Amino acid sequence: MSIYENNLPDVILDTDTYNEIDDQFALSLLLKSGHRLNTKAIYAAPFFNQKSTGPEDGMEKSYDEILKLLGLLGWESMSSLVYKGSRRYLPDEKTPVDSPAARDLSVRAMDYSPEKPLFVAAIGAITNIASAILLNPDISDRIRVIWLGGHARFFPDTKEFNMFQDIAAARVVMTHANLVQLPCNGVVSEFRISKPELEHWLIKKNPLADYLANNVIEEAESYASGTAWTRVIWDVTAVAYLLNDNDRYMRSVRLPVVLPDYSGHYEKEPIGREMTYVYRIERDRLMTDLIRVLTD
Q1: Do 239 and 30 contact (CB within 8 A), yes or no?
Q2: CATH architecture classification, 10-191+233-281
Q3: What is the spatial distance between Cα 245 and Cα 33, in angstroms, rounded to a whole number?
Q4: Are 134 and 166 in contact (CB under 8 A)?
Q5: Exposure string for 185-222, b = 16+ CB within 10 A, e = fewer
Q6: What is the C-alpha to C-alpha distance for residues 295 and 290, in angstroms, rounded to an integer?
Q7: Where do the domains of the chain lie?
Q8: Residue 175 CB-density burial (10 A; 0-12 exposed, 13-18 middle, 19+ buried)
Q9: Which pTM was predicted?
Q10: 226: left (phi over 0), alpha (psi -120 to 50) or beta
């Protein structure tokens, strides 16, 4: 079923853009799909790993990276749509972390309805969205969250970066929001690209394509030089879900929601609501169309 039956869907992207090399691909696909998706805002999400000194530093670096991408696209005028997000993770499942992003969503979503929701593509720790829901629970049925987080249900654990950074936030969103889950290992891990593909399809095509390709090559060569490596750019799939006419890029099913626990596993018993669960990626179709959009 297409989401384009009436008007262009309004979309927000929530992204820890500096954390990896694939958020940039997702943001570029969203913005270059303006004839099909109406971008309303971009939120910088927190992250904490070797590329940041803490969640706040990760969020600030992601904010700067979003602005850098807008410059490469020649769309600096969109900088007013970019909001800084949470400076820390949720302390518990009842306490929001206030931020410009959370406040914006808590207000903006009230202009929507269950019949015409605001789509939120989330490709990082989901703190901003959980905080917005806790700030204003009335938005829960007015947003549809497409989240790349967790691993496939058959995986031995769910210690996936986006989910495990802020399990409280994941539990809030999965409990209250209309959710589409794109599991990482076991599902969207199929969406990978190799050095020869990057060099052939993207290098020397335009400044944006050069930046994206060289980012991936530099990152992968830092740990896999001399091997036949591929690199996941799975964050793309959250945006691609919104472009998934007639199951062109992925297939999904409705399943009962099963929450992650704090030990890194899914709970045994589902809660009393359903979500959409993506279980298959059509890698070659999506990669072909992504390359075409990025080099157009």
Answers
A1: yes
A2: Alpha-Beta Complex (3.90)
A3: 14
A4: no
A5: bebbeebebebeebeebbeeeeebbeebbebbbeebee
A6: 9
A7: 10-191+233-281
A8: middle
A9: 0.95
A10: left
User: In whole angstroms, how far apart are CA 115 and each of 3, 6, 112, 141, 178?
Assistant: 11, 11, 8, 9, 12
- For 127, the token pair is 């703190």
Q: What is the chain's pLDDT, residue by residue, as a tens digit (296 residues)?
A: 344 345 799 999 999 999 999 999 999 999 999 999 999 999 999 999 999 999 999 999 999 999 999 999 999 999 999 999 999 999 999 999 999 999 999 999 999 999 999 999 999 999 999 999 999 999 999 999 999 999 999 999 999 999 999 999 999 999 999 999 999 999 999 999 999 999 999 999 999 999 999 999 999 999 999 999 999 999 999 999 999 999 999 999 999 999 999 999 999 999 999 999 999 999 999 999 999 999 99
> What does 2-24 look like in DSSP terms, one character per residue?
-S-SSSPPEEEEEE-TTTSSSHH
Cα-flanking dihedrals φ and ψ of residue 90, to 5°?
A: -60, 135
The SS3 of residue 240 is helix
Q: How far apart (Å, rounded) are the C-alpha atoms in residues 296 and 251?
A: 27
